[in-house]
Specification:
By secondary structure, the chain is α/β, with parallel strands linked by helices. It is built from 9 helices and 38 strands. The strands form 8 sheets. It has an 18-stranded mixed β-sheet, with helices on one face. A 7-stranded parallel β-sheet has the order 25-27-31-33-35-37-38. A 3-stranded parallel β-sheet has the order 19-21-23, with no helix packed on it. The radius of gyration is 28 Å and the shape is globular. It starts with a helix and ends with a helix. Bound molecules: 2-acetamido-2-deoxy-beta-D-glucopyranose (12 copies). One 2-acetamido-2-deoxy-beta-D-glucopyranose binds near residues 226, 249 and 251. Its main location: membrane. It is found in: Cell membrane. Pfam families: LRR_1, LRR_8, LRRNT_2. Keywords: Cell membrane, Glycoprotein, Leucine-rich repeat, Membrane, Receptor, Repeat, Signal, Transmembrane, Transmembrane helix.
Length: about 625
């Protein structure tokens, strides 16, 4: 991402220099200007511009972009026009970036592109192109990078096969349909292809075998189509490093040819219908990210699990058995998510030797036994809810959980703020404020502890007050007794607290009223007594948060519960709206606790998480494109 920013700033700097230079040159010299741009190239560009319709597009508008072609005027040097890059010696136009430029197609769009035959780089992403891409595009024989991401293209011409210099092709988020070979043609001639993204279309059928014969293909994104199978196994694809195939309709066993992709580092097969067992031969791979989430896999995890893993997500399958002890050697592991399976094991204490482990999700399995004597130096999100853990927690229990007591880091670059790397972002579902919330990307500063739905007993450890960075605490649905520790008043980052359905007694600590981010609390179904504290944090709560505690009383409670029977006829839409507001204000609260993070990135996070699909990809995509241009 750093590279991306450096590059964009360099480009815009260079452009402005060129621009200024162009102006000065024209102003100062009275003689006819000598343009770098070749006249034939200029005329082709102007004609190209005229072929498009500039349509209002709400996304471009909301991203505050303007049509780049606006600056294209016949009387200035076309090499200074926005989105254009020329060969500095010959004046040939070699790069054309018209992303997000409100371009809609009439008939015959792009026909004049033939005259821009020196192009190596063409970016028409984030426009409104529809229908078939004209076959003239196949004449751009020098093209190495082509980005058509986010349009409404439904067909690609067979002349595409002539683009045999392509190293990167992005046709994701379009309307390509039909089977693969029909929709995408035969790219076997593109022997240089390194990066291919056809995600988010409606392509169906088998993944064609020839894809694996492209010798230089390292990154392949097939996500979010309706592929059903991988076709015949291939003894190729040896250079494949990143394979994304989530959100398709793959069925049957995971093909064992995957094990032959020896360079594979990231494998994402999540959200498919794979059944059968995880192929044991996968032990031979050196994966850093493996996501098999949301399939129908059964059996156990491979005994010798992948030593280089940073992320292992096998949540929402039908896996059984124990966690393999070999995970101890995955010393880079940051995320382990096995939620919603049938693992039957004791608490994996031995994971505490993993120095990088930040997220541990054992939710909804058959884990059992006590969990005392654990210490997780870096753990930031731990969700062991809905298992059969029991026993009590010693009062100093949280003293060794330093990951939640101080983070001590700020992140300047947006990518560093999220779990995962720039290509794979970890996501998870978490109960927050009584709502199931999907964290599309996980903020690194986010910390949560969910022990709910087990059989823990005894007192809530006083040392909980040390987890000063904790945002979400859920201890509900256990058998905790005793008082709510007043040390919770030290959890200054806390936003959501749920201790419902325990056997807690005594008073609700006044100290909670001073936690300024705390906007959700649930104390229901305990044996709490005394006065409900006053103050705005409490006043905002739902009366149901105090249900089932007959001993609670006081003016504050009366106030909270006063309006309980007055419900409006439009309750559903209204509460949905409130819910969204809730989420936004929760994130606003997060903003408050991260010094040094640019506002825009947090807003970005909101969009990433809660806004429509089309907001999700521009940065990731542009970033990838730019980084691939910087490599040559
Ligand atoms: C641009 O201007 C030149 C003369 O300055 C003219 O010959 C040419 O036809 C013009 N091109 C277009 C596309 O208008
Ligand atoms: C373009 O669309 C946006 C959002 O839909 C709208 O606010 C704006 O007024 C439109 N602009 C024009 C010139 O129609
Ligand atoms: C474009 O390519 C086709 C073959 O794909 C060829 O027949 C045609 O002459 C080319 N056009 C130009 C202007 O080069
Ligand atoms: C593909 O999409 C086009 C236009 O949207 C439609 O006419 C055609 O029937 C679709 N083909 C298939 C196989 O679904
Ligand atoms: C792709 O092209 C190769 C070589 O031209 C040919 O052998 C193969 O049958 C083609 N495959 C498809 C699916 O068109
Ligand atoms: C593949 O990559 C290698 C090294 O990166 C390069 O030398 C070669 O030209 C590329 N193309 C083919 C077809 O192997
Ligand atoms: C997959 O595509 C559908 C539309 O075809 C879209 O609604 C959905 O958000 C996409 N999912 C992902 C993960 O991109
Ligand atoms: C996915 O496959 C199942 C059967 O294997 C089928 O019933 C379902 O319609 C398919 N879904 C799509 C979107 O093609
Ligand atoms: C877990 O395994 C033990 C035996 O190893 C068995 O007694 C117990 O019933 C299992 N628990 C569940 C929930 O399957
Ligand atoms: C792959 O495609 C999916 C769906 O379009 C997208 O969410 C994801 O970011 C893509 N991955 C990469 C590495 O580009
Ligand atoms: C809260 O933290 C302060 C220091 O950070 C400490 O002195 C105080 O004892 C703590 N209070 C409780 C109730 O743990
Ligand atoms: C209070 O919570 C209950 C259950 O979660 C919900 O049904 C109700 O609508 C909430 N009331 C208000 C006023 O938010």
């Amino acid at each position: 991402m750093k590279g991306f920013w450096n590059l964009t700033s360099t480009i815009s700097f260079t452009l402005s220099i060129l621009f200024l230079f162009g102006y000065n040159y024209e102003d100062v010299s009275a003689v006819p200007t000598k343009h770098l741009c070749r006249p034939d190239q200029r005329d082709a560009l102007l004609q190209f511009k005229n072929e498009f319709e500039v349509l209002n597009s709400s996304f471009a508008y909301h991203l505050m972009r303007h049509p780049k072609t606006e600056s294209w005027r016949n009387n200035s040097d076309c090499c200074t026009w926005e989105g254009i890059k020329c060969n500095v010696k010959s004046g040939e136009v070699i790069e054309l970036d018209l992303s997000c430029s409100y371009l809609g197609g009439r008939e015959n769009i792009l026909s004049s592109i033939i005259d821009l035959s020196y192009l190596t780089f063409l970016d028409l992403s984030w426009n409104l192109l529809s229908g078939q891409i004209p076959s003239s595009i196949g004449n751009l024989s020098h093209l190495t990078h082509l980005n058509l991401n986010f349009n409404q293209i439904s067909e690609i011409p067979s002349s595409f096969g002539n683009l045999n210099q392509l190293t990167s092709l992005d046709v994701s988020i379009n309307k390509l349909n039909g089977s693969f070979s029909i929709a995408l043609l035969n790219l076997t001639k593109s022997q240089n292809m390194e990066w291919l993204d056809i995600s988010n279309n409606k392509i169906k059928g088998q993944v064609p075998g020839w894809l694996w014969t492209l010798p230089n293909l390292t990154d392949l994104n097939l996500s979010n189509n309706t592929f059903t199978g991988f076709g015949n196994s291939m003894k190729h694809g040896l250079s494949m490093e990143q394979l994304f195939a989530s959100n398709n309709n793959f069925t049957g066993n995971i093909p064992s040819f995957i094990c032959d992709l020896r360079g594979l580092s990231i494998l994402d097969l999540s959200n498919n219908n794979f059944s059968g067992v995880i192929p044991p031969c996968m032990e031979n791979l050196y994966l850093t990210v493996l996501s098999l989430r949301q399939n129908r896999l059964h059996g156990g995890l491979p005994e010798n699990i992948f030593v280089l893993l940073t992320t292992l997500d096998v949540g929402h399958n039908k896996l059984t058995g124990k966690l393999p002890k070999s995970l101890i050697y995955s010393f880079r592991l940051e995320v382990l998510n096995v939620e919603s399976n049938f693992f039957n094991d004791t608490f994996p204490f031995w994971l505490s030797s993993l120095p990088q482990l930040k997220i541990l999700v054992l939710r909804s399995n058959a884990f059992h036994g006590p969990i005392d004597h654990t210490s997780f130096p870096k753990l930031q999100i731990v969700d062991i809810s809905h298992n059969h853990f029991n026993g009590s927690l010693p009062s100093d229990y949280f003293e060794r959980w330093s990951g939640m007591s101080s983070l001590g880091t700020t992140y300047d670059q947006p990518d560093e703020m999220y779990m995962g790397d720039s290509y794979y972002q970890d996501s998870m579902v978490l109960m927050n404020k009584g709502l199931e919330m999907e964290l599309v990307r996980i903020l690194k500063i986010y910390t949560a502890l969910d022990f709910s739905g087990n059989k823990f007993e005894g007192e809530i450890p006083r040392s909980i007050g040390l987890l000063k960075e904790l945002h979400v605490l859920n201890l509900s649905n256990n058998a905790f007794t005793g008082h709510i520790p007043s040390s919770m008043g030290n959890l200054t980052a806390l936003e959501s607290l749920d201790v419902s359905q325990n056997q807690l007694s005594g008073e609700i600590p006044q100290e909670l009223g001073s936690l300024s981010f705390l906007s959700y609390m649930n104390f229901s179904h305990n044996q709490l007594t005394g006065l409900v504290p006053g103050g705005t944090q409490f006043q905002r709560l739902n009366c149901t948060s105090f249900d089932g505690n007959p001993g609670l009383s006081g003016p504050s409670l009366d106030e909270i519960c006063r309006n309980i029977h007055i419900s409006t006829p439009h309750e559903t839409p209204q509460s949905e709206e409130e819910e969204e507001e809730e989420v936004l204000s929760w994130i606003a609260a997060v903003i408050g606790v991260i010094p040094g993070i640019a506002f825009g990135w947090v807003i970005g996070y909101i969009l990433f998480s809660y806004k429509p699909e089309w907001f999700i990809n521009p940065f990731a995509r542009n970033k990838r494109r730019i980084s691939s241009t910087t490599t040559h």
